[in-house]
Amino acid sequence: MTNRFHRRTVLGGILAAPFVSRANAQAATFKVGTILSVTGPAAFLGEDMRAGVELAVEEINAAGGIGGRKIEWFFYDGESQTQRALNATRRLLSQDKVDAIVGGGSMSGIAVAMAPMCEQAGVPFMSTEGAMSIIEPANERRFSFKSTADDDQVLERLAAWCIKTNQKNVALVADNSGFGQSAVEQMKIVAQRRGLNVTYESFNPADTDLTGQLTRVRASNAQVVVCWTVAPVGVVFLRQARQLGIKGRLVHSYGFVSQRYMDLAGDAVQDLLLLSVKFPVGDQLPASDPVRQPIVDLSGRFQKRYNRVPNQFVGQTYDAMKIVAEALKAGGPDKVKIRDALEKVRGYKGVSGVFNFSAERHSGLGSSDVVLLDWKNGRFNLADYA
Amino acid sequence: MPAFDATALIQVLIGGIGNGAVYGLVGLGFSLIYRSTGAVNFAQGEWVMLAGMAAAAGFTARWPLPVAAAAALVLVAAVGVLSYQIGVRRLRDPAPLLVTMVSIGIAIFTKGVVMVTLGKNPNGYPGVFGDALVRMGAVSVPAQTLIVIAACLAFVAALHLLFARSRIGLALRASAADADAAALVGIPVRRMVMFSFALAAAAGAVAGLVVTPLTLISYDQGTMLGFKGFSAAMLGGIASPLGAVAGGIVLGALEAVSSYQISSRFKDAVAFILFLLVLFARPHGLFGRRTGERV
Question: Model pTM?
Fold first, then answer.
């Protein structure tokens, strides 16, 4: 063990030597590490998330870097496996010696495991994943932040809509992954606070039949039926709900806002609503909306660079990198000062929403950054704005 | 627990049987290869996935659906034969354990090749009758679920005819019963093993082709389908193809009814416990026959 460690250190030293001298010869850089999963089950997110960080880094460097310092970007594939991602994290922290990490492996489970390592090393970590446990409890997560909306904010937005439309009987059909179960936990709190009657059903992301669960939902007379998953079985949910003649309004979480899923679901998406950040409908927002212009601008630049339309996953990593760049400008290269600067980011107009961080809240988005979408005429449309 | 509701229960049961028919077809593939080699073929689930992905790719390339499906079926059967030629035939001593290990390698390889060539996104295509529903009184069933069940029954019937009526079926049965004796009477045993790989792959392909319109398919779903199919084969008795199909249908129905009557949260656990209980009582599966230990 010691022997192996020693050999690796020596080898690392030899390999790193030419880089160090070259780096010294040039101007100093900021080193930013990124871990996202471009292979494995989360791969369908990873490619777009990677492109978001990449575009942000390219734009910052093309504009002359941060206060004259260019970003040196280290990217590793998390492979959708926590252990692989943690090895890469170790490498970023001890070998590449990055100033900050942006991106937590494209899966909440990975980001949750990465956070304590970044805490211990005292390196600021901007997660681009969903779960609240990445940044909570706040007193143990001093260096960890995230660029996505918290589940309690999203569910708060859902509850507000349910109350506005006078539909208080809700069913939450969530998968039993970390993503789904986090929603169930938060829903229990939100439901009690807002006086909703919620029934819960659960399923496995690998399931292919939800008839049992949905038959129970039908018997519960829920007016709103919410599905919480990122797996293709969400399409089965839509089809079988129609097949069983469920009367309630169907809602999918932000995990299902994907053009591909909508295409695959075909007719079953009629009357579906989706909880989402504003990114997919940037051009439909009222002109007064602060994030409309940033979204429209980024979409144009992204299409020019990658020849495809960006989605909200591009947006959440692009924002993450840009916000960290702001903090590097204010506090770098001192890692504690970078952290302090992140906590002071207020009113930052990103493409996912307006970010407000503070010492108590390391998650920048709020319920006003969440809207309801529908899918008509082959695109997402704004269905409920505020 | 909801109050007893017969129509709802029938509704749930039909969905479960549809799912179970898929498990059964996959289990049938396990059984065919087990009979000819004594091995558990872990690539079986990947073949199901490959069929769905290949047909979806053909459909996306604007091939007519029947053409895409037929091409996928032929492709997967060919992959089955190829797996035998490359992985099994060259083994000096194709012991069951060795063949099982090779099949794991084939599974990982297949999954990797599909990921690189056909991509990581879930894929699908419409069923023959689209999203049409068939109403039977208060119960409504997607037409595609009925097609899944029909395809399973048709495959089983065709296989039964093959085994019972044709010379090649007789030769297959003979090689499975006693390879040495079969070789002595002039049956090309190795070719029979190859043929059973092709049949097993075809069973998997049919499962993949009919289930994809209902559930979509992505490159990483083969493993779970294989696991369910293996459970089906174990439940029904892996040495009996018909038992494997029956085991699949029982497993699918159990899963569906337990998720409805007990709790969706314990669905997998309930199905698994019942599965264990069955195996405690009947170690050779519900429909398997106890075979004497060969010494």
Answer: 0.81
The complex's ipTM works out to 0.78
* Per-residue pLDDT at B249: 93
Domain boundaries along the sequence of chain B: 6-281
Query: Across-strand partners of A102?
Result: A126
Buried b (16+ CB within 10 A) or exposed e, A61-97: beeebbeebbbbbbbbbbbbbbebbbebbebbbeebe
B11 touches chain A (CB under 8 A): yes
Structure confidence at residue B4 (pLDDT) = 66
Pairwise CB contact (< 8 Å): B124 & A264 = yes
Could you please state the CATH topology (level 3) that the domain comprising B6-281 is classified under.
ABC transporter involved in vitamin B12 uptake, BtuC (1.10.3470)
* Contacts with A245 from chain B: Cβ below 8 Å: 140
* Contact by Cβ (8 Å): A97, A31: yes
DSSP state of B123: B
Confidence (pLDDT) at B45: 94
Measure the CA–CA gap between A62 and B138, rounded to whole angstroms.
Answer: 65
User: Environment class of residue A168 by beta-carbon count within 10 Å: exposed (0-12), middle (13-18) or buried (19+)?
Assistant: middle
Min distance A258 CA to chain B CA atoms (Å)? 11
- Going by pLDDT thresholds of 50, 70 and 90, the confidence category of residue A27 is low
Q: Give backbone dihedrals phi and psi of A337, rounded to 5 degrees, phi first.
A: -70, -35
Nearest to B256 among A209, A233, A264 (CB): A209
Cross-chain residue pair B260–A212, CB shorter than 8 Å: yes
Interchain CB distance below 8 Å, B267 and A208? no
- Contact status, residue B169 vs residue B163, Cβ threshold 8 Å: yes
Q: Which residues of chain B have pLDDT under 70?
A: 1-4, 289-295
Q: What's the Cα-to-Cα distance from B134 to each of A124, B210, B214, B262, rounded to whole Å?
A: 57, 17, 15, 27
